[in-house]
Structures are given as structure tokens and as C-alpha cells.
Amino acid sequence: MPKFMLILRGDATADYSQFTPDDFAKILGEYEAWGQKLAAEGRLTMGQKLTDQGGKVIWPRPNKKVEVKDGPYVETKEVVGGVYILKADSYDHAVKLCAGHPNLMFGSIEVRELDFMGGPET
């Protein structure tokens, strides 16, 4: 069965100051419930939130060297907040499985099929 990566994106410029700690707890519960539902169906392979620690961007340079820069950048309008790997019958099926995902209240979900490049599928 094909596997798909869901890339959760959000608006980095959004103002979340109106949310209370109880609001955040409720939203987190909705994310957990969505993941638990797919896990119970045997579809969820992995789901992880990314840390708020920033990150690194690696850029290729001449002579097989690389340059490492801090990222994501302040001027970024969109941020990746987490990823899931799930099993679905097709792209259309993967999209249907995203219905009701709480991230759609705050941003988008990119759906990409995984290609194991000839290696063993795990």
C-alpha cells in the first residue's frame, strides 16, 4: 500500500495571542485525536511536531563544499510545523483522510507520495 507524507504548514505571521492555554490544550487534543483515529485504522506510520528551535539550511557550493545557515528565516510567511507518514490507497484517498484535520484551521496540508527509490519499504 502506498505511503504518503503529509506536510503541515501554517501562517508564520498569524497572531495567536487571542488563544488561551485552554484553547491550545483543546487544539492539541484535536491533533492527538486525529492521529489516534488513523493509528487505530492501521494507517498512521509516523507523526511528529517539529520543535520551535529553528533549524539549519544546507546550501551546495562549488568544489563539493556546503554552506550551513540558520533557518527558518524571520521573513518566512509560511512555516512547516509537523509531518505525518500514512498509508492510503491513492492520492485521492490520502486527501480524504485529511478531512477534518485541525491544521486546516490554521494552514494547509501538502500531500506527497513516498518513493523508496528501489530500497526496501519500511
Give an account of the 3D structure.
- By secondary structure, this protein is an alpha+beta fold.
- The protein has a single domain, classed as 2-Layer Sandwich (Alpha-Beta Plaits).
- 22% of the residues lie in helices and 38% in strands.
- The strands form two sheets. Strands 2-5-1-6 form a four-stranded antiparallel beta sheet, with helices on one face. Strands 3-4 form a two-stranded antiparallel sheet.
- A hairpin with a 3-residue loop joins strand 3 and strand 4.
- It is flat.
- It starts with a strand and ends in a 9-residue tail after the last strand.
Quick recap:
The chain has 122 residues and is an alpha+beta fold.
Which stretches are poorly predicted, pLDDT < 50 over at least 5 residues? none
Measured by DSSP, the beta-strand proportion falls in 35-45%
Total helix count?
Answer: 2
**What would the CATH topology be?**
Alpha-Beta Plaits
- The CATH homologous superfamily corresponds to Dimeric alpha+beta barrel
Q: What CATH architecture label applies? A: 2-Layer Sandwich
SSE sequence, one letter per element: EHEEEEHE
Number of domains: 1
Q: How many β-strand runs?
A: 6
Structural class: alpha+beta
Major sheet description: 4 strands, antiparallel
Strand order of the largest sheet: 2-5-1-6
Topology overview:
Layout (H helix, E strand, L loop, with lengths): L2 E9 L9 H20 L3 E6 L5 E7 L3 E7 L6 E10 L3 H7 L9 E7 L9
Antiparallel strand pairs: 1-5, 1-6, 2-5, 3-4
